[in-house]
Amino acid sequence: MSSEASNEEIRAELIRLLESPTWRIVKSARDAACPILQAAGQRPTDWAILEYITDLLRTDFPFHPIPLGEPPGSVGIGYVMNNTDGRGLYIKVKIERDRADGVVGVVVLSFHISKHPKG
Asked: Could you give the C-alpha distances from 99 to 56, 96, 104, in angstroms and in order?
């Protein structure tokens, strides 16, 4: 995916990667997601996290790019969805590429209630 990819292209790639076996969820995101999912009446599983994010993307929930690392952008671009549940749920994902062998995957970096919710 080029750096000039449209939001629609990025959305499609995120959905494809979330539905493939090339995803991972960082421990802090998984730990924060468990009580959120339980409060919503869902089982706190990796699949529930992936399905929640995929459903948002399929329904055209807005997201925006955010530079990651210090200096900003040094470790790539993440994609953020704010206030996804109307109560401040913040989700951040990143598309990862391995330049050595071309492997592409998606990483769930954040899935938590924001201290500063935005619409």
From this structure: 29, 10, 9
47-64 pLDDT, tens digit per residue, is 999 999 999 999 999 999
Q: Is the distance from CB of 95 to CB of 108 less than 8 angstroms?
A: no
Q: How far apart are CA 83 and CA 90, in angstroms?
A: 6
Dihedral Cα 55, 94, 12, 9, nearest 10 deg: 140
Of residues 64, 51, 70, 58, the one with CA closest to residue 90? 64
pLDDT tens-digit profile of 79-90? 999 999 888 999
Q: How far apart are CA 53 and CA 27, in angstroms?
A: 17
Rounded-to-integer distance, Cα 100 and Cα 8, Å? 27
Read off the pTM. 0.88
